[in-house]
Amino acid sequence: MIRTMLRLTARPGCESVLDVACRTVAGQIAGLAGGVRQEVLRDATDPAVLVLVTEWVDESARRRYADGPVATRFVDAVRPLCAAPPRERVMRDAPTGSTIYVDVELTVPADRRAEFRRGYVEVLARMAGVPGYLREELLREPGSDTHHIFAEWRGEAEFHRWIGNPAHAREEAGPIAPFLLDIRRRLFHAVTDPDSSREPSAGREADVHRTTDVLVVGAGPTGLTVAVELARRGVECQVIDKLAAPPGQADKAIGVHCRTMELWEEQGIVREAMDAGVWLTGNMVFVNGVETHRMSWELPGLPYAHLGLPQYETERLLTERLATLGVRPRRGTELVSFSQDDDGVSAVLATPDGGTEEVRAKYLVGCDGAHSRVRELLGLTFTGGLGRFPQLFMLGDVDVDWDMPDGHLLRFLHETDGRMDGMLVCVPLRGEHRYRIATLAPPRFFAQTGGQDAPPGFSEELAEPTLADVQAALDRLAPPGTRASNLRWSSVFRISHGIVDRYRDGRVFVAGDAAHLHPPAGGQGMNTGIQDAWNLAWKLALAVRGIAAPGLLDSYETERRPEGEEIVGRAVRMAFTDELDRADLERQFLQEMSLLLSYAGSPLVGESVADPDALRGGPGPGDLAPDVAGLHRRGVGHPLRLRDLTRGTRHTLLLYADATADEKALTAMAELSADAQRQMSGELDAYLLLSPDARAPRLPAPPAVVDADGAFRARYGVAGTALYLVRPDGHVGYRSQPVDGDGLRKHLHLLFGGAR
C-alpha cells in the first residue's frame, strides 16, 4: 500500500478556496481505480495548512493518478492559492528505506481540547531530546474529535527502542497520557525517490506489502475479540475474513454465557447486547412427552444472567466496537499461505480484486473456524482423530405456538427401549414465540449424501428443510397441538468433534473452532472461543511490546487446551442425554457458564501462605477473582465494586491491611507496590484495601479504599496483611498472607522477565 501526504499552506484570505479545492479533488480521487483512501486534514496549530492524504493499492495506481488529468488540474488550481510550493511525502507500509513515519490516531473531545494542547506543547519539548526522533505535526479531521500525531523518525530500530521502553515513553508522552488510552498506530517507510518506482513489466502483477503487529485470520467472535483486546492495548492489528460480507443469519451459536457478559462489560458492549438479546431464564427437559425436570437459571449472585443472542448480532456488536478503536476487518480477503522465522510471520493473501499481497506481522492468530486454513497450513492434527456424528441435523428459525414458559430452553427427547432415537431443542429468540430449533434431519437428506463423510458446519449442497419438516419434528416430539409458522431460515448441519494437538506453533496460534470442535450442547463453541481470545490477547500485547517473559506465550496452550479438552468431552457426553449430572444441576450450570473456570494447574500462578488456614475460602491461584461490593474511596459519593478497581488492560495488585498492621507495615506495602510497578513496566494498578478499623496511612500511593462492609475480607479470606494479584483476564495470578514481597517479585519475573 502506498500513502501520499501533500502539505499545502494557503495564502492569506485563500484558506476557504483551498479547502474547497482539496475536498473536490478528494471526491474525484474516490472514483479512480486503486484508490483506497482520500482525506483532507487540517493542521491543528495552523489553520492555513491543509494536508491531502491519499492511499493507493500499489505504486502503479498512484502513478496513474499522478500522471493523469485529475492531478494535473488540481495542481494548476491550487498553485496560485498557496503561499509556498506544496510539499509531498510518499511512503509505504513495507520497508523501503531508513526514515519512517508514525501516524497515531487518537480522540480529543472538544471540551478537553485546551487541556490536550497544553500537554502537547510540553510533549514536543520533551521529545526533542529523544535519539532518532526528528519532527512531528499535529493534524485534525475537520468537524470531528479525531486527531493525528504524525511523527518522523530517523529509523525503525530507534522508534521501537523508544516505544519498547514504557518508562521512557511514559516520561515523554506523560502530559497527554489520558488521551492515549484508545489509539490506532500505523507505521510507514519513506519512499526516497518515488518517481523511480515505475509500473512492473507486462504480465507481472504488482506486489502489495503491509506490515502489522498481529494478523488475525477470521472475523468471527473469536477473531474480533482478539482484535478488540489488542487494539484496546494500542497494538496494531489487521483482521481478514474470506467472506465478502458478515452473515445476517444462519448461526448455530445463540447463548451468551454469564462470564462472556462480564467480558463484554469490560469491552463496553454489554448494554448493547442486553438491548438486542433476550434473557434465557431456565430450561426444561421432556422424555417421551413427560417433563423430567425444570431448572431456573436466575440464580442469586450471578454477575449477569444467560443471554440469548444470535451470533450475527454478536459479530455486529464486536465489529462496531472494533471500529471505534480504528480497526475494520478486511472482508473478501483470504489467507493463501504463510511462513515464519525468528522475527515474524510473512503471509500471502488473496484480495477481493483477484490479486495477492504480502503481510508481514510479528504474530498470526488463526480464528478461522471449523475449516481453518491456518490449522491446515500448520499441519495440526486432532488428538485421537476427528470424531464425526453419523446423524445429520436440521436447524430452523420459526414461530412456535404453544403454552410454554417464556425464556426457557426446551429439550424434548424420545427413547425406545432406553435408547434415544429422537431429539428436539428449542432456544428462545427475540420476538414473540420465536425460537431456533435443532433436531435430526429427515432421512431423505442423509440419503442424498450417499452416506459419505462431509466437513462439519452448514451444508451447501443439500436443500433447505421446509416448514413441513419442522412441523413433522414438532408433531413427534413437542406437546400435542404445537404449531410452527413463519420459517425465516433453515439449513442442514453436520457435527464433528475433536481438539488439535497443540495451540501454538512458533509465532502462530489457533483459537476457537480452529482449535476445538464439539456439539453445540450447552452453547459452548462461541463462548469458549471468546475465552481463548481473552486469555491470549493480553499476553500477545506484552510480547509485541517486548516485555513478556519467554514462557508467557506458552501459557496460552498450557491454560486453554485442558479447558478445551474438558469442554469437548462434556459436550459430546451431553449431546444425547437428558442431563449429565442431576445431583448438582446448579454447579453444572455455573460450569457451563464458565464461572467456575480456573487455571489452577498453570505454572504461571502461585501463592505464599505461611499458615495452612490462611486465605481459606478465598479464590485460589488461577481462580476467577470474584467481584464484591461496598468499597468506599475518599471523594467518591457512592460505593464501589471490586470490578471498578480491576477493570482495564493491566494487572491489579490488591494489598490488604486491617487494624493490626502498623505504620511500618503500611509503608513497606507502599514501597512494594511502587517496586512492582517498576518491575512490570507500568503494567500494574495497585490499591490498598483497608478494613474499617484500620487507620488510613498518609501516603500518596497506592490509593486507599475502605472495605466498609467487610465483603472483601469475607470473600477473600484475608486477615492481618495479605495481597492478591489479579491478571488482566480477571484470574488470580498470585496471593500471599502475610504480604510476601520477595514471592511477588519472583512471580512477576515469570510474567515480565523481558521488561526493562
What does this structure look like?
The structure is a single chain. The strands form six sheets. This protein has an eight-stranded antiparallel beta barrel with strand order 1-3-2-6-7-5-8-4. Strands 9, 10, 16, 17, 18, 19, 28 and 29 form an eight-stranded mixed β-sheet that branches. By secondary structure, the chain is of the alpha+beta class. Mean pLDDT is 87; it is low at 193-207. It folds into four domains: 2-196, Alpha-Beta Plaits (2-Layer Sandwich), CATH 3.30.70; 213-280 and 301-386 and 499-592, 3-Layer(bba) Sandwich (FAD/NAD(P)-binding domain), CATH 3.50.50.60; 390-494, 2-Layer Sandwich (Alpha-Beta Plaits), CATH 3.30.70.2450; 606-752, Glutaredoxin. It contains 20 helices and 37 strands. The radius of gyration is 29 Å and the shape is globular. This is FAD-binding protein. Its cofactor is FAD. Residues 2-91, 100-188 form the ABM domain. Keywords: FAD, Flavoprotein.
Briefly characterize the structure.
The chain is α+β, with helices and mostly antiparallel strands and 756 residues long. The chain contains 20 helices and 37 strands. The model is unreliable at 193-207 (pLDDT under 50).
